[in-house]
Amino acid sequence: MAFLAKHRKEELIALADDMGIETSSNDKKIDICKKVKDSPDFEEEFVRGCLEEIVRQREELKAQAEAVELKAQAEAAELKRTEALRQEREFELEKMRISNAAKVNSVASTRSENSKNRLSLKNLMQKFDSQVSDISMYLALFERQARTAGIEETEWVPQLISLLPLDLAQIIIKEQEEKMQDYLNVKEVLLDRFKMKPETFRLKFTRHQKKTGALWRELVFELRNYLDGWLDGLEVRDFENLKNLMISDQIKRRVAGEVKEHFLDEWGKLVDPLVLAGKIDEYESVRSSRKLHNVRMPERKPWEKVKLPSPRKKN
Length: 315
Description:
The chain has 14 helices and no strands. By secondary structure, it is an all-alpha fold. Keywords: Coiled coil. It comes from Araneus ventricosus. Residues 51-94, 166-193 form a coiled coil.
């Protein structure tokens, strides 16, 4: 019975349950030991084995509970560390936002100050005169001067308006407000006003001559401007499209004037040589068919009436 006394009361209660021995909550440890020993099923080796198994299971449960507790503590510590890192990052981000806001305000202030100090293009360029200047050439010079003067593109429209005559300035001002501030849109409006279409640029590129007394460098600039206008208007962006344009241009030079007149509305936009050739072939086919159906037979001359001699009068 001495080995029974070494075990805990809850272990002895578990042993009694396994052996089918009834116990009560009022039983003391010694009472339980006595009931176990007095049981007809008591056998010392068997009881020892049962108690060892009960102890082992209890220790396993205890170890599992401790592991769960340690895991919970570790997770809580990790959550705490993660939250601390998050708060630290938010704090650093807030510091960066404040710092960036201060820098932006400083840059904006500097830009505003620089804008006030910038040169006005009115002091660098003559006002546009449609009688003596080409609008596309004038805009190209304006853009170059604006970049040289360090004027940002967002400020180009006001600078350009100050250089235009009143009638052209009013055309721009009548545009929608967001479009009026867009230089590229304003440029397109002005080119449309002077009917500077891709075909117009093409003609200027192929026919433009060097002015008397001008440098050949000036001619290079002018031809490049007209070529850019021609290519941009037709949205030629790569070498393949450029080849198509050159071939189409050569075809157009070789057809009769009546063909151009027939396709006048789309003549300047026909860039794909195969499309152009197909339209010309179809046109010539229709023309040939009409000629065959409209062949006129030679007119027959009416029979000449034989004029009989008038009878002679008898004397």
